[in-house]
């Protein structure tokens, strides 16, 4: 049993638990169940409540004594008797079942609509008769007063099969191209069908005529997928639920064309089935991904059940909180929601069981395991366990047994508990000790600068609607640890922060610029207020001839110059930050090289001359292996960053390889392999270009000659002579 709580409503999954293989004997199954603690708590409400492959549809008999389900493979129907909580019988079909109806109080009369256009009528002993309909069927309903079976499917006709006379009657012709669903009102027996065009047509079986048409698609504008009607269900004589292919459920009063309520599943999946719970004023709506329980008055969600595979069908037990789900899996799921009603009479022990479970805590799957990262594993000195059964790889770390983790932690940090105890005692003492002068500060202890920025943004929001509706991070419980735990403090010495610092400084400057503009706007407003007053005459010639610049032009020029200055300062700060980071990396590399050099031996006998190895001296071959290690350093190490090398580094890899290869072709060895080298080069570039042109021409000539040898001449082909007249 698995307990899930949604909106303070507990949902009990009575089918949850680990399944035992079918090939085990009953004795082995019982022993396996007794060994596992979780299996001992598992409840098997109905024995063998499953299908070999997939369950397609499920129903409850009208007398609530039998549960009937169809599935594959092979196509079959199973009947379970609730009084014995076990299977009663099982029958197989020639083809898969699309849907079926129970037309008697028990299992003695059933009608199955199959995917190959066949309709099978079953009695208590088995199949009674089998017939075929003209088009593929999708849904069917039984009309008790006239003993007519209404079948809808691909096509515009509603087929009528009279079970009393055993013959087809004149079908009803609708205005739709295809029909998806149908339902019969339980009180006045009105027939309604859902069409592909998004309409609901109502037919009166007494007059054999269409009495009304309801356009549902017009009530759902702006939907990406066309809202064809895929599910219909009557609550009572006047209220009806309509499910669409776009994932909407509309509740109607059949006396009005306006929906009482519209509910969106937000999955963009077709609604497969609807059901009502009148005692709790709740609606059950099923799509492929979820089963949702919601209030029919307000549309507020009560609870939901998510699928691990795909849901096909469900059925509820009237006046109870239990329902069954058919899915694309072996198991048929059984759920019990106490808020929707009590348990059925045949399993009344569930009420007492759920009351006991509410007082217990549900164990988490990972309670006995601790998640550790690779860094924490190295700190514990347990890297050698990687790849063994003691560590289970998961995402960026590993799961390990919590007892092993505690033991390793105690060995690595033996005084960790003492430190933790002292910190706790000190925190309690500080909380009890109150200073005489209490200064109330709204700033947290950690990340004060970030808190100040957040408080400033909340106090002065921008004009955009998104910025005004942003929640306050200081009051959000999800980010509480960021301002309390020192592990989340911003490290300003980190390389990432130093590279990001110029960007943050520029943002701060832009905010300061905005504040300055606000002040200037206020100042301009004051100047406009003073325009009514008389101004003193000026002796300036520029004012006389109109050469004086306006305030707007001056402000625009100042703004442009300030933008250029800000951009230059920003580029300068970015270059300086990258330079500092690069210098720090070089210093760290030099320190690492110095450490490696210090670790190597410095004695005169620790190095062997390379010339001795070349000349084949026997003394060098007799030296031990640990003294053969030597390190060569370039003489021009300090002159490595010449102007030429810097220019070579700036060009692309292709040009660099071409230059280096040409330089290697021009270098020749003189004398021994360890001796001097000489380089030949030409100063005149014209001669070099002429040489390259001649070389290119020779290559093309060679290519043409090779092509002539490969291409077959046309003379060898025999062509037919055609006489044109």
From TrEMBL:
**Domain NUC153 per the UniProt entry, residue ranges:** 476-503
Q: Which GO terms of the cellular component aspect does the record hold?
A: 90S preribosome; small-subunit processome
Supply the Gene3D superfamilies for this chain.
YVTN repeat-like/Quinoprotein amine dehydrogenase
Q: Decide whether keyword Repeat is in the record.
A: yes
Give the SMART domains listed for this entry. WD40
One GO BP annotation of this record: maturation of SSU-rRNA from tricistronic rRNA transcript (SSU-rRNA, 5.8S rRNA, LSU-rRNA)
Compositionally biased spans, kind Basic and acidic residues: 565-576, 686-709
Query: Would the keyword RNA-binding turn up in this protein's UniProt record?
Result: no
Cite the Nucleolar protein 10-like N-terminal domain residue spans from the record.
2-360
- Biased composition regions of type Acidic residues, renumbered to the chain: 553-564, 586-605
Which residue ranges does the record assign to the Nucleolar protein 10-like second domain? 365-413
Under InterPro entries, the record lists: Beta-prop_NOL10_N, NOL10/Enp2, NOL10_2nd, NUC153, WD40/YVTN_repeat-like_dom_sf, WD40_repeat_dom_sf, WD40_rpt
Tell me the first and last residues of the signal peptide.
Answer: none
Query: Which residues fall in a compositionally biased region of kind Polar residues?
Result: 612-625
Q: Where in the cell is it found?
A: Nucleus, Nucleolus
Which terms are listed as keywords in the entry?
A: Nucleus, Repeat, WD repeat
The segment annotated Disordered runs over: 547-625, 686-712
Please report which protein family the annotation says this sequence is part of.
Belongs to the WD repeat NOL10/ENP2 family.
The name this protein carries in UniProt is Nucleolar protein 10
Look up and give the organism this protein is from.
Answer: Drosophila rubida
């Amino acid at each position: 049993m698995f307990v899930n709580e949604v909106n303070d409503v507990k949902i009990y999954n009575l089918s949850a638990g680990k399944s035992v293989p079918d090939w085990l004997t009953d004795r082995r199954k019982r022993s396996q169940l007794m060994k596992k603690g979780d299996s001992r708590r598992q409840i098997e409400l109905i024995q063998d409540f499953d299908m070999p492959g997939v369950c397609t549809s499920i129903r409850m008999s009208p007398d609530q004594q039998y549960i009937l389900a169809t599935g594959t493979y092979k196509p079959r129907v199973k009947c379970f008797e609730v009084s014995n909580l076990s299977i009663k019988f099982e029958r197989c079909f020639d083809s898969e079942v699309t849907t079926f109806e129970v037309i008697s109080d028990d299992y003695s009369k059933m009608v199955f609509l199959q995917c190959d256009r066949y309709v099978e009528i079953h009695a208590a002993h088995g199949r009674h008769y089998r017939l075929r309909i003209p088009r593929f069927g999708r849904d069917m309903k039984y009309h008790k007063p006239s003993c007519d079976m209404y079948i809808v499917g691909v096509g515009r006709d509603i087929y009528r099969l009279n079970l009393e006379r055993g013959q087809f009657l004149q079908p009803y012709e609708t205005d739709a191209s295809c029909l998806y669903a149908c339902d019969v009102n339980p009180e006045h027996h009105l027939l309604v069908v859902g069409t592909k065009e998004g309409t609901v047509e109502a037919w009166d079986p007494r007059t054999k005529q269409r009495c009304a048409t309801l356009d549902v698609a017009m009530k759902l504008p702006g939907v990406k997928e066309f809202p064809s009607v895929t599910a219909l269900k009557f609550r009572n004589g006047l209220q009806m639920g309509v499910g669409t292919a776009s994932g909407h459920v509309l509740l109607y009063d059949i006396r009005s064309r306006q929906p009482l309520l519209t509910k969106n599943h937000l999955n963009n999946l077709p609604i497969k089935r609807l059901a009502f719970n009148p005692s709790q004023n709740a609606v059950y709506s099923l799509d492929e991904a979820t089963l949702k329980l919601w209030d029919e008055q307000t549309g507020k969600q009560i609870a939901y059940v998510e699928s691990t595979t795909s849901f096909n069908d469900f059925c509820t037990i009237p006046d109870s909180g239990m329902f069954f789900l058919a899915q694309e899996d072996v198991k048929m799921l059984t759920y019990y929601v106490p808020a929707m009603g009590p348990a059925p009479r045949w399993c009344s022990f569930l009420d007492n069981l759920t009351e006991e479970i509410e007082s217990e805590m549900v164990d988490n799957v990972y309670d006995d395991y601790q998640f550790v990262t690779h860094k924490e594993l190295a700190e514990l000195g347990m890297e050698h366990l990687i790849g063994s059964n003691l560590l289970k790889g998961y995402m960026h770390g590993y799961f390990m047994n919590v007892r092993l983790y505690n033991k390793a932690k105690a060995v690595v940090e033996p005084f960790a508990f003492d430190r933790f105890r002292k910190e706790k005692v000190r925190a309690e003492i500080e909380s009890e000790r109150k200073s005489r002068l209490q200064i109330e500060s709204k700033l947290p202890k950690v990340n004060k600068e970030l808190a100040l920025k957040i408080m400033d943004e909340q106090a002065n929001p921008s004009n955009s609607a998104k910025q005004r509706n942003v929640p306050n991070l200081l009051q959000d419980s999800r980010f509480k640890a960021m301002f309390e735990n020192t592990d989340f403090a911003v490290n300003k010495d980190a390389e990432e922060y130093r590279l990001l610092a110029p960007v943050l400084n520029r943002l701060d400057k832009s905010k300061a610029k905005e504040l300055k503009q606000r002040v200037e706007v206020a100042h301009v407003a004051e100047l406009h207020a003073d325009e009514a007053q008389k101004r003193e005459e000026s002796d300036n010639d520029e004012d006389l001839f109109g050469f004086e610049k306006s305030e707007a032009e001056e402000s625009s020029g100042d703004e442009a110059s300030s933008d250029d200055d800000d951009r230059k300062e920003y580029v300068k700060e970015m270059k300086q930050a990258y330079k500092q980071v690069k210098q720090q990396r070089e210093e760290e590399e030099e320190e690492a090289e110095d450490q490696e050099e210090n670790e190597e031996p410095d004695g005169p006998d620790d190095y062997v001359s390379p010339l001795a190895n070349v000349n084949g001296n026997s003394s060098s071959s007799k030296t031990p292996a640990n003294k053969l290690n030597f390190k060569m350093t370039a003489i021009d190490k300090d002159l490595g960053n010449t102007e030429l090398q810097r220019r070579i580094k700036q060009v692309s890899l292709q040009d660099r390889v071409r230059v280096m290869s040409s330089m290697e072709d021009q270098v020749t060895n003189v004398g021994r392999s360890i001796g001097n080298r000489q380089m030949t080069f030409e100063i005149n570039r014209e001669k070099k270009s002429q040489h390259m042109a001649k070389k290119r021409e020779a290559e093309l000539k060679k290519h043409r000659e090779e092509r002539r040898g490969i291409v077959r001449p046309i003379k060898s082909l025999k062509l037919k002579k055609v006489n044109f007249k």
